[in-house]
Write a sequence for this structure.
């Protein structure tokens, strides 16, 4: 019996150590390559919401977009999702409602929509490396 209890206690301790060593749940903040791979956006807290600004551009010809805010007013709504804000699409020169949801630590689901999510476009952004060379506004 003592052997079983000692074995079970060892298993519980091993699980506790593994849980403590696991990285925290991924959130939407950080630097993300957009779905095109032509730019990266840094998402940061902005009051009680999230904002996002362009911090990297693949093509230097688009340098004027560096520092541009393209996400704003996104608030946590539960279930890991953030919604109620806006996203600007510079290719279409249009602003849409946006929902963002982390898909693990390395991917972010970005849903741009007009009024209803029935009229939406879903994109997957990928986390950029920490050493990404940023553009300067």
């Amino acid at each position: 019996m003592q052997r079983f209890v000692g074995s079970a206690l060892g298993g519980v301790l091993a699980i506790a150590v593994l849980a403590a060593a696991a990285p925290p749940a991924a959130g939407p903040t950080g630097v993300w390559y957009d779905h095109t791979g032509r730019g990266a956006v840094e998402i940061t807290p902005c009051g009680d919401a999230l904002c996002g600004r362009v911090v990297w551009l693949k093509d230097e010809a688009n340098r004027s977009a560096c520092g541009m805010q393209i996400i704003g007013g996104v608030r946590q709504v539960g279930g890991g999702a953030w919604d109620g804000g806006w996203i600007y699409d510079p290719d279409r020169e249009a602003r849409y409602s946006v929902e963002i949801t982390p898909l693990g630590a390395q991917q972010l689901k970005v849903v741009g929509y007009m009024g209803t999510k029935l009229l939406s476009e879903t994109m997957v952004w990928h986390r950029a490396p920490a050493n990404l060379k940023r553009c300067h506004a």
Remarks:
- Residues 1-25 have pLDDT under 50 and may be disordered.
- The chain is about 15% helix and 50% strand.
